[in-house]
Design brief:
single chain; alpha+beta; four-stranded antiparallel sheet
Length: about 110
């Protein structure tokens, strides 16, 4: 892996970037997502939407969770309310921190 800089951390969500190769990482308990710069910002926009990618469902354990579809139909993420808030907050904060680091490097 690259030498990354942490952009944000909220709850179980950590977001980092390697400025050298422009790879973004989202670390979330049991998975790690990697993105190119453009794909990261596309993903950020999905989390901001209230469209078909996001809906709530009751799980077999009786818990009500948010379901987030991905561009890959076999991969779907679920979050309880606190996890979802932390996830969205971390993504938003990482966007601002990335912009800040970009201004420092220019």
């Amino acid at each position: 892996m690259c030498d990354t800089k942490i952009l944000s951390q909220r709850g179980d969500t950590h977001i980092s970037v390697c400025h050298k190769c422009q790879t973004y990482y989202i670390w979330q308990q049991s998975f790690v997502l990697t993105f190119t710069k453009n794909k990261f910002f596309d993903f950020l926009n999905i989390t901001k939407s209230n469209g078909d990618e996001l809906f709530f469902s009751t799980f077999p354990d009786g818990e009500f969770r948010l379901i987030m579809k991905t561009p890959y139909p076999d991969i779907v993420f679920s979050f309880d309310e606190e996890q979802w808030q932390n996830f969205r907050d971390a993504l938003q904060e990482s966007y601002y921190m990335n912009e800040f680091y970009g201004m420092l490097n220019n």
